[in-house]
Amino acid sequence: MDASADRQRGDQLCRDGRYAEAIEAYRKAAEGQEIPPADVCLKIARCHQHLGEHEHACRLLTRLVDAADTFTPWQAAAGLLEKIRASHEPPAKRRPRVALLGSYTTTQFAGMLRLAALRFGMAIDLYEAGFAQYRQEILDPGSGLYAFDPDFVILALHAGEAALPEYSRAPDDDVQAELERWRSLWRTLAKHGSARLIMHNFALPAESPMGHLAARLPGARLSMMHALNARLGEAAGGEVSIIDCERLSSLYGKRRWFDDRYWYLSRQAMTLDALPMLARHTAAVVAADLGLSRKCLVLDLDNTLWGGVIGEDGLSGIGLGAGPAGEAFVAFQHYVRLLKDRGVILAVCSKNNEADAREPFEKHPDMALSLEDIAMFVANWKPKSENIAHIASTLNIGLDALVFVDDNPAEREVIRQMLPEVEVITLPADPSGYVRAVDQSLLFEPASFTEEDAKKTEQYRARAEIARLEGESDSLEDFYASLQMKAVIAPFDALHLPRIVQLIGKTNQFNLTTRRHTLPQIQAFMNDADCVHLYLKLRDRFTDHGLVGLVIAKKDGEVLDIDTLLMSCRVIGRTAERAMMSELCKGARRLGCAAIRGTYVPSAKNAMVEGLFADLGFEPEGDAAADGERRWLYDLAGRGAIENRFIEVVSGDEEQAHDAA
C-alpha cells in the first residue's frame, strides 16, 4: 500500500473514531521520511488530542514546525494547540508571560508565536493588545499591559511607523530624533514594569521613489531607515533584544515578504506565509533570553567535516579544500569555528580509530578546525548514543544542551530514539547546505556575547583535565588544594551586568530557586540598600573560568533572605559556593542580620542542590511544602560565618594584575 492509500485509510479511521488505528496508518504513510510531512504530523496530533494524549499531540505539533514553513499548516496547528491549551497545559521548560504589542494586525502572528515557542520548549501565556494600541498601552500605567505583568514585551512594527520624511536636508538630526522617540517608549516601559523588551526593527520595502540614488543619498528615507535600524541596535545594548526584520525580509525575499493586498484588506504588514519565519525567529530570541539556547555542538567526522572516510581513504583521499564539495566542507568548518569563537562548545563523536580521526586535524593543510577548538574528542567503535551521553557527563552539561550533527540519517534517527533530549539536525545530502541547516535551526541563538563566552572551549577542556586530576588525588582536600583556586567576589556592577543576566537566564542545575530576573529587576536589586548582591569569578592553575556564580539576598528584619543562589556547571564541585556564602555572611553582618534564610524550589534540573543548605549548616525552617519547596535558616549569630578553606579571595586589582601578566 502506498503513502497516499495509507493517508486515505487513516482519514477513514479518523472519521470512524478509531484514532489509535488511524495513528498507525498515518505513521506508515510517513515511513522512510526523516521528518514526517506537515499534514501527517497534524493528522496524528489530532488523533492524539481526541484520545486525550495531549503531550503526544504537542510533540507532533513541534515536528510540524520543522516540516513546514507556510501559513496554512501553521495556522491549523496553532488552532489545535489552542484547543489543547483549553484543557491541558502543554509540556514546557519555561512558561513566560508575553505581551504582544503591534502597529499592525497581529492575531495570526500571536497563534504562530505560541506554536513556535512550544518548539523551543516554552508554553507562553500571551496578552495581545488591540490593533495599533502599543503607544497607549506603554504610556498608560493603568493599561492592560501592566496589569498583565509580562516577563517579555514584543513590539511588532512595520516601516510606516517610523516618522521620517521621504527626503530630509538634515538626515542625521531626523534619525536621531526618531531614535529618541523610540528610546522614550523603552524608558517608559522600564519605569512601569520589569519586562524584557523584544523589538522588531523595520523591514524596508523594496520600492523607493529615489531608485538607486537612495543608496548614495543620506537624506533619502530609505537611507535614513537603514541608519535608524543601525542606531536602534546600538542603543539596545544589553537592555533590549532586537529581531532583525530587515534581514529576515531580505532572506525571505522582499517581493514575497511584502504583499500590499494584505495591508489594504486587513492591515497585515507582511504576507501570511512569512509569519512562520517571523514567529520562529522571535521565539528563538525569547528562548535565548530565557537560557534555552543549546550550548554544545557534537560533530561527526567522516562526510560531515570532510568528504569520504579517513580510515579507508587516507589523509590524501578525503574531500577537503579542492573542488566544490571540498570547499563546502571547509566552509562548514569555518562556520563551526565561528560558533566556537562565539561561545558554543564543540565536541567530536565519531566511529573511528582515534589516531585516524585525529590525523586530519593534525596534518591536513585545509582543515579550518584544530584540536584546540574541540573541548572533547571521542572516537571509538561504541554506539554514538553511549558516547554522546559520556560527553554530556564529562562536560557536566545536560543532554538537552547538546545538538548532534551527522551526515548519516540512520545515526541521526538512533540518537532521536535513544537520547530524545538531544537536538538532532537533519543535514541535506549536499554539503553546501550544511551551514544553512545549522544556522537556520536557530538552536544556538545568543542572548548576549561576553568575555566568558569567548573562553568556553579553554574552560571546558580544562574541566576534562581537572576531572583526570581529581581521579589521581589521594583525597578531596588534596585535590582542592592542588587546584590553587583564587576568586574575586564583589557586588554587581555595570561592567558585569551582561554576564550576570546571561547566567541567571540559563543556569539550571546549580540554581536553588531558578528565578529568572530581567535586567531591570537586577538593577533594582543593585539600587536597594537592603540587598546584598555578589558575583564570583574563579580561576585555578588550569584556566580562568570567568564569572561563574552569584547570590542575591534581601534583608527581612533580622534575617537576610536569599532570593537567588546559582553557579555555572563549569565549577560545580570546587567549594565555590562556600566562598560565596562566606562573603554573604559578611554582607549579612553589615546589614545587622543575625540569620540567613535559604529557599530550595525543586525543578526538573536542580535536584543536585537539594541538600546544599544542610551541607552548609542551615537548619530546616518548618516543613517542606507539597511541591517540595523548603526553607532553611542559618544561625549566623550563634555559628559564625560559613568557612571557606580552599579558595583564596582576592581583590579586583589583583585579578587585573594577573590578567596583565
Would you write up a description of this structure?
The protein is of the alpha/beta class. The chain contains 29 helices and 18 strands. The strands form three sheets. The protein has an eight-stranded mixed sheet, sandwiched between helices. The protein has a five-stranded parallel sheet with strand order 2-1-3-4-5, with helices on both faces. Strands 8-7-6-9-10 form a five-stranded parallel sheet. Helix 4 (54-67) crosses helix 6 (107-119) and helix 6 packs across helix 14 (275-289).
What keyword list fits this structure?
661 residues, alpha/beta, five-stranded parallel beta sheet, 29 helices
Short précis:
This protein is α/β, with parallel strands linked by helices and 661 residues long. Helices cover 46% and strands 16% of the residues.
Number of helices: 29
Report the oligomer: single chain
What proportion strand? 15-25%
End-to-end Cα distance, whole Å, is 72 Å
| Helix-and-strand structural type | alpha/beta
Instruction: Sketch the major β-sheet.
Output: 8 strands, mixed
Rounded mean pLDDT is 91
Coarse shape: globular
Helical content band: 40-55%
Counting DSSP E segments of at least 2 residues, the number of strands comes to 18
The residue ranges in which pLDDT falls below 50 over 5 or more consecutive positions are: none
Rg (C-alpha, Å): 27 Å
Cross-sheet strand order for the largest sheet: 16-17-15-14-13-12-11-18
What's the topology here?
Layout: H1 3-15, H2 19-29, H3 38-50, H4 54-67, H5 71-85, E1 97-102, H6 107-119, E2 125-128, H7 134-139, H8 144-148, E3 152-156, H9 171-192, E4 196-200, H10 221-236, E5 240-243, H11 245-252, H12 254-257, H13 260-266, H14 275-289, E6 296-299, H15 310-313, H16 323-342, E7 345-351, H17 354-363, E8 376-380, H18 384-395, E9 402-405, H19 409-418, E10 423-425, H20 434-439, H21 451-454, H22 456-472, H23 476-483, E11 485-491, H24 497-506, H25 519-526, E12 531-539, E13 544-556, E14 559-567, H26 576-590, E15 595-600, H27 612-615, E16 619-620, E17 630-635, H28 636-639, E18 647-650, H29 652-660
Parallel strand pairs: 1-2, 1-3, 3-4, 4-5, 6-7, 6-9, 7-8, 9-10, 11-18, 14-15
Antiparallel strand pairs: 11-12, 12-13, 13-14, 15-17, 16-17
Helix pairs in contact: 1-2, 2-3, 3-4, 3-5, 4-5, 4-6, 5-6, 6-14, 9-10
